[in-house]
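New to this. Explain the following:
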Amino acid sequence: MKNKKLQPEAIRYAFRLTIGCLLVLICCEYLHSKNGYWALYSVITCVWPLQSISIKRVKHRTFGTFAGMWLGIFFAHLLTKHIFFIDLVVAFCVFMAIYLKMFGYGYYVTFVTTVTVLLICLLSPGDWYVAITRFEMTLLGTAIALLVNLMILPTTVNQQLAEQLTQLKSSLQEYYQDLCTLSLHKESAIRKKQQNAFKVLQLTLQRLKESANEFNIPIDFNITLEKVYQTLLVLEIFMPVQLQHQELKALDQNLQLILKQVCPLFIEVNFEKTESLQTELIELQKKLKQQRSIAAANLDIPSTTLYEHIELSLLLQTLQDLLLNLKTFAFSIENQILKIAPKKSTHNQH
Protein backbone atom coordinates (compact mmCIF):
# COMPACT_ATOMS: atom_id res chain seq x y z
CA MET A 1 0.00 0.00 0.00
CA LYS A 2 2.96 2.29 0.54
CA ASN A 3 3.73 2.42 -3.17
CA LYS A 4 0.09 2.89 -4.16
CA LYS A 5 -0.66 6.04 -2.17
CA LEU A 6 -1.39 9.19 -4.12
CA GLN A 7 1.44 11.63 -4.58
CA PRO A 8 0.90 15.31 -3.63
CA GLU A 9 1.44 16.47 -7.21
CA ALA A 10 -1.25 14.05 -8.45
CA ILE A 11 -3.75 15.34 -5.89
CA ARG A 12 -3.04 18.97 -6.84
CA TYR A 13 -3.34 18.14 -10.54
CA ALA A 14 -6.67 16.32 -10.08
CA PHE A 15 -8.05 19.21 -8.00
CA ARG A 16 -7.02 21.84 -10.61
CA LEU A 17 -8.50 19.79 -13.44
CA THR A 18 -11.80 19.31 -11.57
CA ILE A 19 -12.11 23.02 -10.76
CA GLY A 20 -11.30 23.95 -14.36
CA CYS A 21 -13.99 21.64 -15.77
CA LEU A 22 -16.56 22.94 -13.27
CA LEU A 23 -15.79 26.55 -14.23
CA VAL A 24 -16.28 25.70 -17.92
CA LEU A 25 -19.65 24.09 -17.21
CA ILE A 26 -20.75 27.11 -15.17
CA CYS A 27 -19.67 29.58 -17.90
CA CYS A 28 -21.33 27.57 -20.67
CA GLU A 29 -24.54 27.33 -18.66
CA TYR A 30 -24.48 31.07 -18.06
CA LEU A 31 -23.74 31.86 -21.74
CA HIS A 32 -26.22 29.21 -23.02
CA SER A 33 -23.51 27.84 -25.26
CA LYS A 34 -24.15 24.63 -27.19
CA ASN A 35 -20.49 24.19 -28.15
CA GLY A 36 -18.97 24.18 -24.68
CA TYR A 37 -17.22 20.87 -25.31
CA TRP A 38 -14.44 22.76 -27.12
CA ALA A 39 -13.81 24.83 -24.01
CA LEU A 40 -13.94 21.70 -21.85
CA TYR A 41 -11.49 19.92 -24.11
CA SER A 42 -9.16 22.94 -23.96
CA VAL A 43 -9.12 22.72 -20.16
CA ILE A 44 -8.42 18.98 -20.23
CA THR A 45 -5.53 19.38 -22.68
CA CYS A 46 -4.00 22.51 -21.11
CA VAL A 47 -4.18 21.73 -17.39
CA TRP A 48 -1.07 19.66 -16.71
CA PRO A 49 0.73 18.64 -13.50
CA LEU A 50 3.58 21.11 -14.10
CA GLN A 51 2.77 24.83 -14.32
CA SER A 52 5.34 25.69 -16.99
CA ILE A 53 4.10 22.93 -19.32
CA SER A 54 0.50 24.05 -18.81
CA ILE A 55 1.29 27.66 -19.74
CA LYS A 56 3.18 26.49 -22.81
CA ARG A 57 0.22 24.35 -23.95
CA VAL A 58 -2.18 27.27 -23.40
CA LYS A 59 -0.08 29.37 -25.80
CA HIS A 60 0.17 26.56 -28.35
CA ARG A 61 -3.54 25.82 -28.28
CA THR A 62 -4.58 29.46 -28.54
CA PHE A 63 -2.29 30.38 -31.44
CA GLY A 64 -2.76 26.98 -33.09
CA THR A 65 -6.54 27.36 -33.07
CA PHE A 66 -6.32 30.93 -34.41
CA ALA A 67 -3.96 29.92 -37.24
CA GLY A 68 -5.97 26.78 -38.06
CA MET A 69 -9.23 28.71 -38.16
CA TRP A 70 -7.94 31.16 -40.79
CA LEU A 71 -6.20 28.41 -42.77
CA GLY A 72 -9.45 26.45 -42.84
CA ILE A 73 -11.47 29.50 -43.92
CA PHE A 74 -8.89 30.32 -46.60
CA PHE A 75 -8.91 26.83 -48.13
CA ALA A 76 -12.69 26.51 -47.82
CA HIS A 77 -13.22 29.86 -49.57
CA LEU A 78 -10.62 29.08 -52.24
CA LEU A 79 -11.90 25.56 -52.99
CA THR A 80 -15.63 26.00 -52.36
CA LYS A 81 -16.66 24.46 -55.69
CA HIS A 82 -13.90 21.83 -55.78
CA ILE A 83 -14.86 19.20 -53.22
CA PHE A 84 -12.21 16.78 -54.49
CA PHE A 85 -9.42 19.27 -53.72
CA ILE A 86 -10.92 19.95 -50.30
CA ASP A 87 -10.73 16.20 -49.62
CA LEU A 88 -7.07 16.25 -50.64
CA VAL A 89 -6.35 19.18 -48.31
CA VAL A 90 -8.15 17.39 -45.46
CA ALA A 91 -6.07 14.25 -45.98
CA PHE A 92 -2.87 16.34 -46.15
CA CYS A 93 -3.76 18.22 -42.93
CA VAL A 94 -4.52 14.97 -41.10
CA PHE A 95 -1.10 13.64 -42.12
CA MET A 96 0.65 16.85 -41.05
CA ALA A 97 -1.19 16.90 -37.70
CA ILE A 98 -0.03 13.38 -36.86
CA TYR A 99 3.50 13.88 -38.19
CA LEU A 100 4.17 17.29 -36.59
CA LYS A 101 2.67 16.38 -33.21
CA MET A 102 6.06 15.12 -32.04
CA PHE A 103 7.63 18.51 -32.84
CA GLY A 104 5.10 20.62 -30.96
CA TYR A 105 1.53 20.66 -29.71
CA GLY A 106 0.86 23.93 -31.58
CA TYR A 107 1.41 22.31 -34.99
CA TYR A 108 -1.00 19.54 -34.12
CA VAL A 109 -3.72 22.00 -33.02
CA THR A 110 -3.24 24.13 -36.15
CA PHE A 111 -3.87 21.30 -38.61
CA VAL A 112 -6.63 19.65 -36.54
CA THR A 113 -8.50 22.99 -36.46
CA THR A 114 -7.99 23.36 -40.21
CA VAL A 115 -9.50 19.90 -40.77
CA THR A 116 -12.45 20.72 -38.48
CA VAL A 117 -13.25 23.95 -40.34
CA LEU A 118 -12.96 22.26 -43.76
CA LEU A 119 -15.24 19.38 -42.77
CA ILE A 120 -17.85 21.79 -41.43
CA CYS A 121 -17.64 23.80 -44.65
CA LEU A 122 -18.22 20.60 -46.64
CA LEU A 123 -21.45 20.05 -44.73
CA SER A 124 -22.48 23.70 -44.73
CA PRO A 125 -20.58 25.76 -47.38
CA GLY A 126 -19.98 29.38 -46.46
CA ASP A 127 -20.86 28.89 -42.80
CA TRP A 128 -18.00 30.50 -40.83
CA TYR A 129 -19.99 30.77 -37.61
CA VAL A 130 -18.85 27.37 -36.31
CA ALA A 131 -15.18 28.18 -37.01
CA ILE A 132 -15.43 31.44 -35.07
CA THR A 133 -17.36 29.73 -32.27
CA ARG A 134 -14.64 27.10 -31.96
CA PHE A 135 -12.05 29.83 -31.54
CA GLU A 136 -14.18 31.63 -28.95
CA MET A 137 -14.73 28.46 -26.94
CA THR A 138 -11.03 27.63 -27.18
CA LEU A 139 -10.20 31.09 -25.82
CA LEU A 140 -12.62 30.53 -22.96
CA GLY A 141 -11.14 27.12 -22.16
CA THR A 142 -7.52 28.25 -22.35
CA ALA A 143 -8.28 31.33 -20.22
CA ILE A 144 -9.83 29.14 -17.52
CA ALA A 145 -6.92 26.69 -17.80
CA LEU A 146 -4.42 29.53 -17.40
CA LEU A 147 -6.31 30.93 -14.40
CA VAL A 148 -6.50 27.52 -12.74
CA ASN A 149 -2.81 26.78 -13.33
CA LEU A 150 -1.70 30.11 -11.91
CA MET A 151 -4.09 30.46 -8.97
CA ILE A 152 -5.03 27.00 -7.68
CA LEU A 153 -2.25 24.99 -6.00
CA PRO A 154 0.31 25.50 -8.79
CA THR A 155 3.15 23.01 -9.11
CA THR A 156 6.37 24.72 -10.20
CA VAL A 157 9.49 23.13 -11.67
CA ASN A 158 11.25 23.44 -8.31
CA GLN A 159 8.46 21.67 -6.43
CA GLN A 160 8.05 18.78 -8.84
CA LEU A 161 11.79 18.31 -9.23
CA ALA A 162 12.22 18.12 -5.45
CA GLU A 163 9.31 15.69 -5.15
CA GLN A 164 10.60 13.45 -7.92
CA LEU A 165 14.11 13.41 -6.48
CA THR A 166 12.74 12.55 -3.03
CA GLN A 167 10.64 9.76 -4.53
CA LEU A 168 13.63 8.53 -6.51
CA LYS A 169 15.84 8.31 -3.43
CA SER A 170 13.09 6.52 -1.50
CA SER A 171 12.66 4.01 -4.34
CA LEU A 172 16.40 3.36 -4.48
CA GLN A 173 16.51 2.85 -0.72
CA GLU A 174 13.50 0.52 -0.69
CA TYR A 175 14.95 -1.63 -3.47
CA TYR A 176 18.28 -1.82 -1.63
CA GLN A 177 16.56 -2.78 1.65
CA ASP A 178 14.66 -5.59 -0.05
CA LEU A 179 17.89 -6.88 -1.60
CA CYS A 180 19.50 -7.03 1.85
CA THR A 181 16.46 -8.75 3.35
CA LEU A 182 16.39 -11.25 0.51
CA SER A 183 20.02 -12.16 1.15
CA LEU A 184 19.09 -13.31 4.66
CA HIS A 185 15.66 -14.83 4.08
CA LYS A 186 14.88 -16.48 0.78
CA GLU A 187 11.08 -16.56 1.05
CA SER A 188 8.74 -16.09 -1.90
CA ALA A 189 6.94 -13.19 -0.19
CA ILE A 190 10.21 -11.28 0.20
CA ARG A 191 11.13 -12.05 -3.41
CA LYS A 192 7.77 -10.66 -4.54
CA LYS A 193 8.26 -7.54 -2.40
CA GLN A 194 11.72 -7.05 -3.93
CA GLN A 195 10.30 -7.41 -7.44
CA ASN A 196 7.60 -4.82 -6.68
CA ALA A 197 10.25 -2.44 -5.33
CA PHE A 198 12.21 -2.93 -8.55
CA LYS A 199 9.14 -2.07 -10.65
CA VAL A 200 8.50 1.09 -8.60
CA LEU A 201 12.15 2.09 -9.06
CA GLN A 202 11.92 1.62 -12.83
CA LEU A 203 8.73 3.73 -13.02
CA THR A 204 10.35 6.48 -10.95
CA LEU A 205 13.42 6.50 -13.17
CA GLN A 206 11.22 6.64 -16.27
CA ARG A 207 9.24 9.61 -14.90
CA LEU A 208 12.42 11.51 -14.13
CA LYS A 209 13.83 10.82 -17.60
CA GLU A 210 10.59 12.00 -19.22
CA SER A 211 10.88 15.27 -17.28
CA ALA A 212 14.58 15.73 -18.07
CA ASN A 213 14.00 18.28 -20.85
CA GLU A 214 11.63 20.39 -18.75
CA PHE A 215 13.95 20.34 -15.74
CA ASN A 216 17.02 20.92 -17.92
CA ILE A 217 18.78 18.08 -16.10
CA PRO A 218 22.46 17.81 -17.17
CA ILE A 219 23.77 14.68 -18.84
CA ASP A 220 26.26 14.11 -16.00
CA PHE A 221 23.42 13.63 -13.55
CA ASN A 222 21.71 11.03 -15.75
CA ILE A 223 25.01 9.17 -16.13
CA THR A 224 25.57 9.17 -12.35
CA LEU A 225 22.01 8.01 -11.70
CA GLU A 226 22.42 5.23 -14.25
CA LYS A 227 25.60 4.07 -12.48
CA VAL A 228 23.77 3.85 -9.13
CA TYR A 229 20.97 1.88 -10.80
CA GLN A 230 23.35 -0.51 -12.56
CA THR A 231 25.35 -1.03 -9.38
CA LEU A 232 22.19 -2.10 -7.55
CA LEU A 233 21.46 -4.61 -10.30
CA VAL A 234 24.97 -6.02 -9.97
CA LEU A 235 24.55 -6.11 -6.20
CA GLU A 236 21.46 -8.28 -6.60
CA ILE A 237 23.52 -10.80 -8.58
CA PHE A 238 26.36 -11.09 -6.06
CA MET A 239 24.32 -10.81 -2.87
CA PRO A 240 25.01 -14.10 -0.99
CA VAL A 241 22.07 -16.03 0.41
CA GLN A 242 23.77 -18.26 2.97
CA LEU A 243 27.50 -18.77 3.42
CA GLN A 244 28.49 -22.30 4.47
CA HIS A 245 32.17 -21.85 5.30
CA GLN A 246 32.69 -21.12 8.99
CA GLU A 247 35.50 -18.56 8.53
CA LEU A 248 33.44 -16.65 5.99
CA LYS A 249 30.51 -16.42 8.38
CA ALA A 250 32.54 -14.15 10.65
CA LEU A 251 33.21 -11.82 7.73
CA ASP A 252 29.57 -12.05 6.72
CA GLN A 253 28.47 -10.73 10.12
CA ASN A 254 30.65 -7.65 9.65
CA LEU A 255 29.29 -7.30 6.14
CA GLN A 256 25.68 -7.35 7.36
CA LEU A 257 26.44 -4.48 9.73
CA ILE A 258 27.93 -2.50 6.85
CA LEU A 259 24.89 -3.23 4.66
CA LYS A 260 22.58 -1.79 7.33
CA GLN A 261 24.70 1.36 7.62
CA VAL A 262 24.61 1.92 3.85
CA CYS A 263 20.80 2.09 3.77
CA PRO A 264 20.34 5.64 5.20
CA LEU A 265 22.90 6.99 2.71
CA PHE A 266 20.34 6.70 -0.11
CA ILE A 267 18.28 9.48 1.50
CA GLU A 268 21.07 11.70 2.82
CA VAL A 269 24.72 11.02 2.11
CA ASN A 270 27.13 11.51 5.02
CA PHE A 271 30.52 11.85 3.36
CA GLU A 272 32.45 11.00 6.54
CA LYS A 273 30.31 7.91 7.08
CA THR A 274 30.81 6.89 3.47
CA GLU A 275 34.59 7.16 3.79
CA SER A 276 34.49 5.10 7.00
CA LEU A 277 32.41 2.35 5.35
CA GLN A 278 34.73 2.26 2.34
CA THR A 279 37.67 1.77 4.70
CA GLU A 280 35.84 -1.09 6.45
CA LEU A 281 35.09 -2.74 3.10
CA ILE A 282 38.75 -2.51 2.09
CA GLU A 283 39.76 -4.18 5.39
CA LEU A 284 37.23 -6.96 4.80
CA GLN A 285 38.64 -7.50 1.33
CA LYS A 286 42.15 -7.80 2.76
CA LYS A 287 41.00 -10.40 5.32
CA LEU A 288 39.15 -12.33 2.65
CA LYS A 289 42.20 -12.31 0.40
CA GLN A 290 44.40 -13.56 3.24
CA GLN A 291 42.03 -16.42 4.00
CA ARG A 292 41.89 -17.38 0.35
CA SER A 293 45.68 -17.27 0.02
CA ILE A 294 46.20 -19.48 3.11
CA ALA A 295 43.59 -21.98 1.99
CA ALA A 296 44.98 -22.09 -1.54
CA ALA A 297 48.54 -22.63 -0.21
CA ASN A 298 47.40 -25.57 1.90
CA LEU A 299 45.31 -26.96 -0.98
CA ASP A 300 42.41 -27.58 1.40
CA ILE A 301 39.87 -25.15 -0.03
CA PRO A 302 36.79 -26.93 -1.49
CA SER A 303 35.39 -25.73 -4.79
CA THR A 304 32.15 -24.60 -3.10
CA THR A 305 34.09 -22.50 -0.60
CA LEU A 306 36.22 -21.03 -3.40
CA TYR A 307 33.04 -19.99 -5.15
CA GLU A 308 31.83 -18.30 -1.95
CA HIS A 309 35.17 -16.48 -1.68
CA ILE A 310 34.84 -15.14 -5.20
CA GLU A 311 31.18 -14.20 -4.70
CA LEU A 312 31.93 -12.36 -1.47
CA SER A 313 34.90 -10.56 -3.01
CA LEU A 314 32.75 -9.34 -5.91
CA LEU A 315 30.07 -8.23 -3.46
CA LEU A 316 32.58 -6.17 -1.45
CA GLN A 317 33.85 -4.51 -4.62
CA THR A 318 30.30 -3.76 -5.77
CA LEU A 319 29.49 -2.17 -2.41
CA GLN A 320 32.54 0.08 -2.76
CA ASP A 321 31.34 1.11 -6.21
CA LEU A 322 27.88 1.78 -4.80
CA LEU A 323 29.24 4.05 -2.06
CA LEU A 324 31.32 5.95 -4.59
CA ASN A 325 28.34 6.37 -6.93
CA LEU A 326 26.12 7.51 -4.05
CA LYS A 327 28.63 10.23 -3.17
CA THR A 328 28.74 11.40 -6.78
CA PHE A 329 24.95 11.23 -6.97
CA ALA A 330 24.51 13.39 -3.86
CA PHE A 331 27.10 15.86 -5.08
CA SER A 332 25.33 16.12 -8.44
CA ILE A 333 21.97 16.86 -6.80
CA GLU A 334 23.40 19.47 -4.46
CA ASN A 335 25.63 21.34 -6.90
CA GLN A 336 23.87 20.97 -10.26
CA ILE A 337 20.15 20.15 -10.14
CA LEU A 338 19.11 22.56 -7.40
CA LYS A 339 20.97 25.43 -9.08
CA ILE A 340 19.41 24.81 -12.47
CA ALA A 341 15.77 24.55 -11.29
CA PRO A 342 15.40 28.18 -10.09
CA LYS A 343 17.01 29.42 -13.28
CA LYS A 344 14.54 27.43 -15.35
CA SER A 345 11.61 28.62 -13.25
CA THR A 346 12.65 32.29 -13.63
CA HIS A 347 12.86 31.86 -17.36
CA ASN A 348 9.34 30.46 -17.50
CA GLN A 349 7.95 33.46 -15.62
CA HIS A 350 9.12 35.76 -18.37
About this structure: Residues 8-151 form one domain. The first helix runs from residue 8 to 31. The chain has 13 helices and no strands.
